[in-house]
Design goal:
elongated; five-stranded mixed beta sheet; BirA Bifunctional Protein, domain 2; binds histidyl-adenosine monophosphate; eight-stranded mixed beta sheet; alpha+beta; Rossmann fold; 40% helix; 420 residues; 15 helices
């Protein structure tokens, strides 16, 4: 599990702010759901034979004897919230949330046991138009962030019925090659044979390449849904590749699945992935409502931002307030609070914890401020404060306390302009 340190926060906040604005532009509303849910919810939603449920959940029994789990993903919890708060009844919702997810995976670069997701869900929309819009929205997100090394892969998993037929064919095919399957794939053959197609084992690639394709077994409605999606993407100008082996690791998907991958992060190449889950809400006991959504891995997207050198500079102070002498140290806090009242758009940093003049100026320099405001006993006695631009050669000036805050505002404007 990761600490996000102050030095990394500028990237995180830039990403979060950009995502929030974008989602608001597209009409999505924020929802906040609990981190802990009943274990049963994830078993039913994600599927008993998935890696997530079989091996990766942080599950514990609470004081009341109930089995609870730290959410490994957000879709199940958001659907539970929509059902238990009576949000369905034919209504449509475009929802998003951000927060930590927990999976007990083997940690490596880009893969953590606690990681953040931006999770987006559109419920009540059956057509491929919303699928396409979600992809166009993500493409726009990369453009706004200046992230270029990402590619969109799409596929259709068809309806559960079509998949059942395909699954039988696939199992028969892999049984015919059982001796060449690795142990993971042998295990998956019983519970989740489609996941074999996802195997990264190089020795499995040849058998996988010759396996029957789900895209050749789609039901006519799913075929039409997928064709319309492809046409819409072309029309919008979102580049994509059809990847018939894209299956996803969670069981609730039907029809459209998609994944944004990158070649910039090594093995953990999925930055953002999702798909349609038309059966999930009914499966969880809600009235049958279609849904589609995706989640973006925040750590991975932040890493792409850093690599692309698109992180804005961290916010610095504008004015550093130096205090010199006993009276000035006592008067400083009140004076600075009044300046903050008068100039709410200006960032003041008051020197705290003492220090001689030289130390305080060193701190002022490191703060990034453009202007130092000097409150000294001598100045106070004369009813003035001194001001010194920090980023260029310019002499110290004085401003009557009675002329604050306008005097500081003018000096700061001058100091910042010269600096720029
Ligand atoms: P997922 O593919 O399991 O989908 O995860 C979505 C994204 O979360 C991945 O593409 C990846 O960027 C990030 N991610 C997953 N595991 C880790 C990890 N251990 N460390 C760092 N990042 C990780 C879902 O979770 C679905 N609920 C998405 C969805 C929403 N489908 C429909 N609606």
């Amino acid at each position: 599990m990761n600490d996000v340190l102050p030095a990394q926060i500028a990237a995180w906040q830039h990403l979060e702010g950009t995502v929030r604005d974008l989602l608001t532009d597209y009409g999505y509303e924020e929802i906040r759901v609990p981190i802990v849910e009943h274990t049963e919810l994830f078993k039913r939603a994600i599927g008993e034979f998935t890696d997530v449920v079989e091996k990766e959940m942080y599950t514990f029994t609470d004081q009341g004897g109930e089995s609870l789990t730290l959410r490994p993903e957000a879709t199940a919890g958001v659907m539970r919230a929509a059902i238990s708060n009576g949000m369905l009844r034919g209504a449509r919702h475009k929802l998003w949330c951000i927060g930590p997810m927990f999976r007990h995976e083997r940690p490596q670069k880009g893969r953590y046991r606690q990681f953040y997701q931006v999770n987006v869900e559109a419920i009540g929309f059956p057509g491929p138009d919303v699928d396409a819009e979600l992809m166009a929205m993500t493409a726009r997100l990369w453009r706004r962030l200046g992230i270029e090394r990402v590619k969109l892969n799409i596929n259709s998993l068809g309806t559960p019925e079509a998949r059942r037929v395909y699954r039988e064919k696939l199992v028969a095919y892999f049984r015919g090659h059982e001796a060449r399957l690795d142990s993971d794939s042998k295990r998956r053959l019983e519970g989740n044979p489609l996941r074999i197609l996802d195997s990264k084992n190089p020795e499995m690639q040849e058998i996988i390449a010759a396996a029957p394709l789900l895209t050749d077994h789609l039901d006519p409605e799913s075929r039409e849904h997928f064709d319309t999606l492809c046409n819409t993407l072309q029309d919008i100008g979102v580049a994509y590749e059809v990847n018939p082996r894209l299956v996803r690791g969670l069981d609730y998907y039907t029809r459209t699945v998609f994944e944004w991958t990158t070649d910039a992060l090594g093995a953990q190449d999925a930055v953002c992935s999702g798909g349609r889950y038309d059966g999930l809400i009914a499966q969880l006991g809600g009235e049958s409502t279609p849904g589609v959504g995706f989640a973006m891995g925040v750590e991975r997207a932040v890493e792409l931002l850093v690599q692309a050198q698109r992180v804005p500079p961290a916010a610095a102070a504008d004015v550093y307030v130096v205090v010199n002498g006993a009276r000035a140290t006592a008067a400083g806090p009140g004076l600075v609070e009044r300046l903050r009242d008068g100039l709410p758009q200006v960032r003041f940093e008051l020197n705290l914890g003492g220090g001689n003049f030289k130390t305080q100026f060193r701190r002022a320099d490191r703060s990034g401020a453009a202007l130092a405001l000097i409150i000294g006993d001598d100045e106070l006695a004369r009813g003035v404060v001194a001001m010194k631009p920090l980023r260029q050669e310019a002499s110290q000036t004085e401003c009557p306390i009675a002329a604050l805050p306008a005097g500081v505002e003018a000096a700061l404007a001058l100091a910042s302009r010269r600096q720029g």
